[in-house]
């Protein structure tokens, strides 16, 4: 059987007339636009003084984003931070309440075409999921709006607009980027059918400046120029290897990336075992890796789990490099999105193949809540940084943190707005002096994690080139690794391969984190700190003061707020 190659083919499988779909919200019949049948996606305007709520849920790592009519991202948060369930796939009332406290949306945007997704589920044999209509957007959202009398907050019935999964990834990246036009590369495990997609994005010409609703800015438009269909997927491959070595797929891929530094990346890593074939950018796997890897594939090879991890990392880098080389020039601005864009080792290599690379700090499915809202808004968003989640309030406790570092060398910090994304960037962080020989072991003991896993540093931007081979780069969101020039001075933040996942902190970045590093440098001569996520083992990062108190009680580490 041939795999459907386009969204339109898959749409036609279900219904020839999916351009307009009826959805039930509360007691209201709402009409939403279906998948566009145009090659260029022209996006709607939104009335002044309104809000759009973007939502993603149902698979893993649910999220919510609220955007106002001026392009401000007023809230963006993870469901897991409120439920305490890591990578929680379900929306919850606390998350929605927090989002709605900033404004009452006139419309709701959903991060995928769930009907199109069901065709792929039917094809792959996931019959129960395909016919489970309790997971439609209306069924997931409606109870959250009705509970606690939330429905009356809307002056008129909310409209749910569904956008394609990969299109939401693309929009979350492009409309937060500094680019007027860009190539967008989306690589994840799976969308509806797409596993890789390449887009050309730009803003419409300035004739739209005459329209007051656009506020002098053109509307975003997207043209898909290439895609790869299920089941052939780089993301599924990496997740399958993650599961094979005993880790949790769709969650522990970052651990596999850390393991890779301890193994030998053998030349035939995967090509001979599972017949990986590449022709230009097309990727073909002999087996459907959605079902995992058969134990027989690596039996008798003598390979360790670390070797297998190293092989997976090597093949992933090779495939991504091939995609970039074939589709991107060194004059292109590139937006890289999807869960695979969290592979910071690969990202370091990909930067060499384009003019500038932008990765929104939350490129996975949770970040697609922002992408859905961005598509509904239609224009460039005002990106001021990733501190968009739950607000604990208070000033950044610089002096308290410094005092704890001087005394104990390790301290937690939980204050202000939480980071939107998987990286702790200073407001939900466990910090430590990176110079001690015993620091890495002490932090590992606190976090109860494998000793082979690396820790990341945060460093004053102007000193980054002194410690790391960054060649003028900035990396404020920990998205790439760099070679450390002075590993003996900072043993706690250097991985087995001699690299570190660096967070540069400039004067334009978080003022509290910047002030902390400046004072730390003034007092110690050390321009960096070890920075890892503040979380109890098996749980997401702390979200509020209650979570911080639990961490403090369990591990005996001061948490400054």
Portion in beta strands: 15-25%
Given as residue ranges, the uncertain stretches (5+ residues, pLDDT < 50) are 1-48
Q: Let me know the largest β-sheet.
A: 6 strands, mixed
Based on CA atoms alone, the radius of gyration comes out at 23 Å
CATH architecture of the domain at 7-171 and 363-383, by name, is: 2-Layer Sandwich
Q: Termini, distance in Å?
A: 58 Å
Quaternary structure state of the chains depicted: single chain
Q: Can you tag this structure with a few keywords?
A:
single chain, 561 residues, alpha/beta, Nucleotidyltransferase, domain 5, DHBP synthase
Fold and architecture overview:
With 561 residues, the protein is α/β, with parallel strands linked by helices. Helices cover 29% and strands 22% of the residues. Among the domains are: 186 residues, ATPase, nucleotide binding domain (Nucleotidyltransferase, domain 5, 2-Layer Sandwich); 173 residues, Carbamoyltransferase, C-terminal domain (DHBP synthase). A hairpin with a 2-residue loop joins strand 1 and strand 2. The radius of gyration is 23 Å and the shape is globular.
């Amino acid at each position: 059987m041939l795999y459907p190659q386009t969204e339109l083919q898959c749409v036609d499988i279900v219904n020839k007339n999916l351009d307009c779909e009826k959805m039930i919200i509360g007691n209201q019949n709402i009409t939403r636009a279906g998948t566009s049948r145009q090659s260029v996606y022209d996006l709607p305007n939104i009335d002044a003084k309104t809000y759009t709520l973007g939502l993603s849920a149902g698979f893993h790592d649910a999220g919510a984003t609220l955007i106002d009519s001026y392009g401000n991202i007023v809230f963006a948060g993870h469901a897991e931070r409120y439920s305490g369930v890591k990578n929680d796939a379900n929306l919850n009332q606390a998350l929605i309440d927090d989002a709605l406290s900033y404004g009452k949306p006139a419309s709701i945007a959903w991060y995928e075409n769930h009907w199109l997704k069901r065709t792929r589920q039917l094809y792959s044999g996931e019959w129960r999921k395909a016919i489970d209509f309790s997971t439609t957007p209306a069924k997931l959202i409606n109870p959250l709006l009705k509970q606690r009398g939330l429905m009356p907050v809307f002056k008129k019935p909310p409209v749910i607009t569904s956008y394609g999964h990969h299109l939401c990834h693309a929009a979350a990246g492009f409309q937060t980027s500094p680019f007027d036009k860009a190539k967008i590369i989306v690589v994840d495990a799976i969308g509806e059918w797409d596993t890789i997609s390449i887009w050309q994005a730009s803003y419409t010409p300035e004739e739209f400046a005459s329209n007051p609703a656009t506020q002098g800015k053109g509307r975003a438009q997207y043209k898909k120029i290439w895609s790869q269909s299920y089941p052939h997927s780089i993301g599924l491959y990496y997740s399958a290897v993650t599961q094979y070595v005993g880790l949790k797929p769709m969650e522990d891929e970052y651990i596999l990336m850390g393991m890779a530094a301890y193994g030998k990346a053998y030349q035939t890593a995967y090509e001979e075992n599972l017949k990986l074939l590449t022709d230009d950018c097309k990727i073909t796997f002999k087996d459907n890796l959605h079902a995992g890897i058969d134990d027989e594939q690596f039996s008798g090879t003598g390979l360790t789990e670390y070797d297998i991890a190293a092989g997976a990392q090597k093949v992933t880098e090779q495939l991504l490099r091939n995609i970039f080389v074939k589709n991107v020039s060194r004059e292109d601005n590139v937006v890289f999105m999807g869960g695979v864009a969290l592979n910071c080792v690969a990202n370091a290599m990909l930067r060499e193949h384009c003019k500038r690379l932008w990765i929104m700090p939350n490129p996975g499915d949770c970040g697609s809540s922002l992408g859905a809202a961005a598509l509904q808004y239609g224009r460039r968003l005002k990106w001021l940084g990733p501190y968009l989640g739950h607000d604990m309030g208070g000033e950044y406790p610089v002096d308290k943190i410094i005092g704890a570092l001087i005394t104990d060398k390790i301290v937690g910090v939980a204050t202000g707005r939480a980071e939107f994304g998987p990286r702790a960037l200073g407001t939900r962080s466990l910090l430590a002096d990176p110079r001690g020989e015993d620091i890495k072991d002490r932090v590992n003991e606190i976090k109860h994690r494998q000793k082979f896993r690396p820790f990341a540093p945060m460093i004053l931007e102007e000193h980054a080139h002194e410690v790391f081979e960054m060649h003028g780069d900035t990396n404020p969101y920990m998205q790439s690794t760099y070679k450390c020039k002075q590993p003996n001075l900072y043993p706690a933040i250097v991985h087995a391969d001699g690299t570190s996942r660096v967070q540069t902190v400039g004067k334009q970045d978080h003022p509290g984190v910047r002030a902390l590093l400046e004072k730390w440098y003034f007092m110690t001569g050390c321009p960096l700190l070890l920075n890892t996520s503040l979380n109890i083992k098996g749980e997401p990062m702390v979200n509020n003061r209650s979570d911080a108190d639990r961490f403090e009680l369990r591990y005996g580490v001061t948490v400054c707020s």
